[in-house]
Amino acid sequence: MGVTTTIALVVLLWAASTALIFFLDSLPQRTFKWSMIGATLLLAVSFYSVWAMRNDTSTFAILASFTASIMVWGWMEMSLYMGYVTGPRKQSCPHGCHGAKHFGHAVAVNLWHELAIIAAAATLWSLDNQMALWTYVMLWLMHLSARLNVFLGVRNVSAEFVPEHMAVLRSFLRKRNMNPLFPVSCIALTALIIWLAFNSGSQSLPYTIAATLAVIGLIEHILLMLPLPVEKLWHWSQARKRPPVPPTNDTTKLYTGFLGA
Questions:
Q1: What is the DSSP annotation of 87-147?
Q2: How many CB atoms lie under 10 A from the CB of residue 99?
Q3: How confident is the model over 41-82, as pLDDT tens digits?
Q4: Cβ neighbourhood burial of 2 (10 Å; 0-12, 13-18, 19+)
């Protein structure tokens, strides 16, 4: 398979997955249980597929393992934003809370979700499928980087994609023109892209997939800081438009991109 075709497939799958999650998340809350049942069935099929193709190095197996890992990550995103796997803390952070205490509260809001991510990573590792594990770990690292950047403060993110029952997340995120972690994240992603591009060798397909994901992650990071209405890119994927979130303080924005949410 050519490099261009591989890149196109990765981008298409990422965009379709993101749009589908936004669409399901914008439906009435009564539909969430059915969405999660379907996603959980796909999760089980994905884990089985990863196991079944653990020793297969064909193009089909590599692409299928990549797709299965994307489905696993999609379950993680849906379980958080639909409110099924979150954390022990359900209250917003009070005004004036900052420092280590503020960070601890933010961790508590997402704790079960982060532990679920780790459990899925351990499961994929035990299934001995490198393509699936690579994909998942890259999504996880870019997710973690984006979340830390949003916590520290970024310029251009929108809370309108966050359902009201998860509004607690907004009080732990800041709107700022820059934060110290952002350039480090972008440099690290750029270095990873360069390393993947120059070390593909005989495994060009897995490296091309990984590099494409890294490029998408870098673009998503850059969009966090651009003074553009980026949220309009995904308006078409919404089943119903949520009203704008009125600003109450400097913590009313939340990043919801698929890779970094």
A1: -S--SPPPTT--HHHHHHHHHHHHHHHHHHHHHHHHHHHHTT-HHHHHHHHHHHHHHHHHH
A2: 7
A3: 999 999 999 999 999 989 999 999 999 999 999 999 999 989
A4: exposed
- pTM score: 0.87
Query: Residue 247: its pLDDT value, please?
Result: 42
Rounded CA-CA distance 177/222 in Å is 12
Please check the confidence at residue 245 and state whether its pLDDT lies above 70.
no
